[in-house]
Amino acid sequence: MTNIFASHEAEVIEAVRAARENHRTLEIVGAGTKRNYGRASHCDDVLDVSGLRGIVNYEPEELILTVLPGTPISEITALLESKNQRLGFDPADWGPLFGAKANAATIGGVLSSDASGSAAVRYGRSRDSLLGFRAVNGAAEGYKAGGRVVKNVTGFDLPKLMCGAMGTLGVLTEVTLRVFPKPFCSAALIMRDIASAEGLALLRRIWSSPLEATGLSYIPASVAFPELGNIGEGAALIRLEGAVEPLREKVEAALMLLGNRAEQINDETIFAKIGDGAAFEGSDWDVWRVFVLPSEAQKAIARIQSPLWLADWAGGLLWIGVLPGNDGMLLRESTEPTGGHAALLRTSDETRSRVAVFLPEPPVRAALTKSTKAAFDPLGLFNPGRMWDGV
Fold first, then answer.
1. Of the N and C termini of the chain, which has fewer Cβ atoms inside 10 Å?
2. 124 or 305, which is more confident?
3. Tens of pLDDT along 99-147?
4. Does 161 score more than 80 pLDDT?
5. What does the mean pLDDT of the chain come to?
6. What angle do helix axes 196-207 and 297-304 make, rounded to 10 degrees?
7. pLDDT at residue 151, as a whole number
8. 341, 335 in Cβ contact below 8 A?
9. pLDDT at residue 154 greater than cutoff 80
10. pLDDT tens digits, residue range 319-346?
11. Is 391 a domain residue?
12. Phi then psi dihedrals of residue 197, to 5 deg
């Protein structure tokens, strides 16, 4: 196995050209914090793109940022904060969950894995922030897609396709992102000692209101966050943001919707910890992420019956702990009747090799997936099998 380092798009093109000629598959790696996410992919060589790093263009007044994919999220966040702006999808740091360093994730890796945090309930996921990109396809051709505006009708919406594709469709060499103003103030509310069914119903009530909450999570008593203190049977958490006076009015309105049963807390880092999967760090449990309609969350929880779980996105995202070695069949059978799907985020190498990490596709969709892969990567050079066998 050869490690190939690239710091410019031209070097990526040359690496792909050589891989084509020599019939060598490539594992696409940045910081490597999520290298163990997805199916075990056995590649001939490693293409390290962490050298594609830096700010290409930043226009704060236009809310547009263009960076190279190897740029650390921490560097991007610091730049945006200097202009009171933020990435709307609230990038999650899954590195520690996989035993990697914290704050090492790159924007390319976050987009490729769709590592979206708690604020996605308000601003959308990573695919809603990626406006355009440059990449190298399996024919060793550099190309661009999308643009620099939110409403782009210049062709197929390829940016959405690349988010969550796990590097199987090509090598990103530049990304253009939509950013958002960062509110002056924020407030976190907690409702303690509340059962999951009632707590999730209240979160949905806030979600459907005009309050534009940027965090809507439920934590059962089985999950320990010491900074929250005693939460009794469970706790519903709400984050609201805005200027001082509008935020005060939002908090008052939220308290009314919650029947004045909530209290304000000072530690808002809890939402970052929820998005990062911190509740599962240090445990041996397999970690699944289950996506359901918020209205179906309680049914899914009741069917799954895991002692270790929590909910984000007003119940639209469930983090589920499963005993090691479990094939997840019961979990998927419990989820699919609600119209949801489940992805295995963290597990052992042995389980990754035999269990469908992502939702098994029906024949029609599987054929579409293979044809898409063939269009971007006809020789199957990039992360083969990372998402589904034979893709």
1. N
2. 124
3. 999 999 999 999 999 999 999 999 999 999 999 999 999 999 999 998 8
4. yes
5. 94
6. 150
7. 54
8. yes
9. no
10. 999 998 788 888 888 888 778 899 999 9
11. no
12. -60, -45
Nearest to 383, CA basis, from 173, 166, 174: 166
DSSP reduced 3-state for 322? strand
For residue 140, the one-letter residue type is A
How far is 69 from 52, CA to CA, in rounded Å? 6
Same-domain status, 201 and 144: no
Our CA angle for 175, 99, 231, nearest 5°, is: 95
CA 92/CA 30 separation, integer angstroms: 16
pLDDT over 70 at 211, yes or no: yes
Residue 85: strand pairing partners: 181
247: tokens are 């935020």
**CA distances from residue 361 to 263, 288, 326, 335 in whole angstroms, order as listed:** 44, 18, 20, 15
Both 209 and 165 in a single domain? Answer: no
CA angle 282, 285, 286 (to 5 degrees): 120
**Residues 124 and 92: beta-carbon distance below 8 Å:** no
Helix axes of 196-207 and 244-257: crossing angle, nearest 10 degrees: 140
pLDDT tens by residue, 270-302: 999 999 999 999 889 999 999 999 999 999 999
Range of the domain at 291: 277-354
Six-digit token string for 124: 């959308």
Domain match, 83 and 69 both: yes
* Ramachandran assignment for 259, one of left (phi > 0), alpha (psi -120 to 50 degrees), beta (any other): left
Tokens of 156: 């197929």
